[in-house]
Prior knowledge:
Layout: H1 3-28, H2 34-41, H3 45-57, E1 61-63, E2 70-72, H4 74-81, H5 88-103, E3 106-113, E4 116-123, E5 130-132, E6 138-140, H6 145-152, H7 156-164, H8 178-191, E7 194-195, E8 204-212, E9 218-227, H9 237-253, H10 268-271, E10 291-293
Parallel strand pairs: 5-10
Antiparallel strand pairs: 1-2, 3-4, 3-9, 4-6, 7-8, 8-9
Helix pairs in contact: 1-3, 2-3, 5-9, 6-8
Amino acid sequence: MSNLDDRRDYGVRSVQLAIDILEAVALSGAELGVTQIAVQLQLTKGSVYRHLQTLVERGYLAQNLATTRYHMGPRSRLLARLSAKPDLIEAAEPLMWDLRNTVGQTVVLSEMSPRGAMVLRTVPGPSPIEIGVRPGSELAFHASAQGKILLAYAPKPLQQRVLSGPLQQFTGKTITKRHPLETELERVRARGYATAPEEIILGLNALAVPIFDEEGNCAATVAIVGSIQFIRAEPNRHIIESLRDTGRQISYALGYRPPKDAAVPRKAVVAAKIKPRRARHPSRSPSRSPRRST
């Protein structure tokens, strides 16, 4: 490899490391110190520290002078607000809380990543034993309800890439063969929803529906996650229709307009303007509960 290639390779690794550090801080839910980041990313403290200083200088991270730990900086928050598109989490969150209170299960919002469905927001269910999915987690296309939705509505080249690659078997019920998965995706498109009973973890199931943007593309997915005892392999119609209605309302808030002969969901116009207000959901409790994550 030439010296030029060496420099290019080092530059790419350096960018990847900076992004890894930024994501570690953003997804932590709390301020992190140099040692914590280094341990989490399995890197030297010196390497992490140099990248932290650059990110602080550019405003993407900020340092708490009292604790010397790091948190998200003003430039990161600014970039998050500069998108011309409506904010997905802001549009979805109040509707997710309404759905959670209706069905009594954890509600999860996900968007596509190169490897599957990335969890953006989780609204925990009311059960004392919480079953949830951590924000930042990536769920496999072939083994999660959210991933199946995104893959079913994805462009053909992406479908072919996933279908032709190796498919990891998480449990004995994971679909790992191409033809059965193609058949499953056809069913998802025909029904407009997807399930994944015990396909990632035994005892758990998820039910997901698509969220469409103003151009009619599947931009994200909203799902309910819970025990197979409550979300059966063939969910009841009440849960399916409640979830579908939430998906329609979020889609409408993002600018999607259904065909003229389709009914516009009630509250959809209001939902587009609602800001998440925690005080509107007194059923939420800050108490710590036993947590089971996927």
